């Protein structure tokens, strides 16, 4: 461990677990030790210094600018390998002592707030994600979007807003991105400038670096909510009404194959997680995702995650590979986090081979568009398969399509639930079990409306009868 001194008239630090601050040195001795080789004085690349935002939202929109030389001198007096063994609070307090000593030695005019700010910045850099820390801790934030060093946005209650969070430069953002990716065994650099990964809490992260991102590295984070929404919670927050929630519960208990459709950020994954609460705890569930974020509530869940190719271009494992393997794992249900490509064919095959009750999500603007998207994705991997054969597979596999939308007032709502009925000629026929009908909006811009239903007898009525839920379904339909 490196040692360093402080002014002789300063009291030595005596705190439990202190490992960074050394005993005081003579006043005539320079308080900073001899410079280390160029590769040692700074923090390792995955944890470069971060310019953290103020800890409270009521702080002013500007942050104090610290001299780069001061930051460098502080970092020189920290042994990274030792600093990582103490808690963040201990590290921050000791860094504050270092800053205070340097400020006294050099007669720097630094306020207590500025010293605390720099200590927070360096501590966050070494133990976390720097400026991201307060945003990740803020439970009102759903999404974090880093577009540049001083261009950071968040989403609260469905609305985007710019926040006073700053990185020092583009290299600073790239260092944070590399740290995030490396924690889950992914890499992001010039040879692989795009990556999907996750934070330890399950939050989904997308990173894209220059030259693909022209002006700056970009990081997009879909935060994992600390509160797990169930159907009751989604009814309470306005995503659906009670009758529609009962229909979805019955669909899950009857082991219907459900496709959740919607745009980016519409709440597809949240709804999928909520639907999983009705799966019997005795069932074996296999989940397949690009970046694992599903948090199912059953005890017997196997989570599978794709793997990108290595530097040599080998070792890639796709969702399709995982689907093939999942069929050999004796699953009762297969949950595909999101269907994006040729694996759509394998998903349909799984649904048609005894794995009833499977659930997946897809990006589409309506339930009808979702069917077209699935058909197009199947054709990506099965070029010679006739369109009619693909549509016959879709009709046989899918029972319900649930459309979720983030509306212009920021509220996420289920706007359409459609039943896949059959194939007439070359066209897949569907029936809207329920749909949201817009009425008006209040003075605050909040949209109001009601759900309508066709009250048609579903094609899966025999399944409802088999599970003894046909009367419950009919009652819920009347209440819509």
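Sequence proposed for the structure above (480 residues):
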């Amino acid at each position: 461990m490196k040692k360093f001194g402080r002014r002789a008239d300063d009291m030595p630090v005596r705190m439990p677990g202190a490992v960074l601050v050394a005993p005081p040195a003579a006043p005539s001795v320079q308080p900073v030790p001899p410079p280390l080789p160029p590769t040692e004085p700074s923090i390792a690349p995955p944890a470069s210094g971060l310019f953290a935002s103020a800890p409270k939202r009521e702080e002013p929109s500007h942050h104090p600018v610290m001299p780069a030389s001061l930051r460098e001198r502080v970092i020189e007096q920290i042994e990274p390998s030792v600093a990582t063994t103490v808690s963040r609070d201990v590290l921050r307090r000791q860094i504050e002592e270092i800053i205070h000593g340097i400020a006294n030695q050099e007669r720097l005019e630094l306020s207590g707030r500025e010293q605390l700010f720099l200590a927070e910045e360096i501590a966050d850099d070494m133990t976390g994600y720097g400026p991201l820390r307060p945003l990740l801790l803020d439970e009102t934030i759903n999404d974090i979007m880093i577009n540049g060093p001083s261009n950071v946005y968040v989403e609260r209650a469905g609305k985007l807003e710019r926040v006073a969070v700053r990185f020092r430069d583009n290299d600073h953002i790239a260092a944070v991105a590399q740290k995030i990716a490396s924690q889950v065994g992914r890499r992001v650099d010039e040879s692989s400038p795009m990556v999907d990964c996750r934070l330890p809490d399950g939050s989904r992260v997308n990173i894209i670096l220059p030259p693909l991102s022209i002006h700056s590295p970009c990081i997009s984070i879909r935060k994992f909510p600390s509160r797990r929404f169930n159907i009751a919670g989604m009814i309470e927050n306005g995503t659906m009404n009670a009758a529609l929630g009962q229909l979805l519960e019955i669909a899950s208990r009857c082991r219907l194959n459900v496709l959740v459709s919607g745009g980016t950020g519409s709440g597809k994954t949240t709804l999928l997680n909520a639907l999983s609460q009705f799966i019997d705890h005795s069932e074996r569930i296999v989940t397949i995702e690009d970046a694992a974020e599903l948090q199912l509530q059953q005890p017997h869940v196997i989570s599978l995650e794709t793997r990108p190719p290595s530097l040599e271009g080998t070792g890639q494992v796709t969702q399709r590979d995982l689907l093939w393997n999942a069929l050999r794992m004796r699953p009762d249900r297969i949950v595909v986090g999101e269907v994006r490509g040729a694996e759509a064919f394998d998903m349909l095959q799984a649904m048609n081979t005894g794995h009833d009750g499977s659930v997946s999500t897809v990006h589409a603007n309506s339930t009808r568009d979702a069917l077209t998207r699935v058909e197009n994705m199947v054709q990506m991997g099965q070029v010679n398969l006739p369109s009619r054969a693909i549509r016959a597979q879709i009709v046989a596999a899918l029972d319900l399509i649930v459309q979720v939308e983030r509306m212009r007032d920021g509220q996420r709502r289920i706007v359409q639930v459609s039943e896949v009925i059959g194939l007439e000629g070359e066209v897949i026929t569907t029936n809207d079990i329920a749909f949201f009908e817009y009425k008006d909006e209040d003075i605050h811009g909040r949209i109001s409306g009601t759900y309508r239903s066709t009250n048609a007898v579903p094609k899966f009525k025999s399944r409802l009868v088999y599970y003894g839920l046909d009367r419950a379904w009919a009652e819920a339909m009347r209440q819509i």
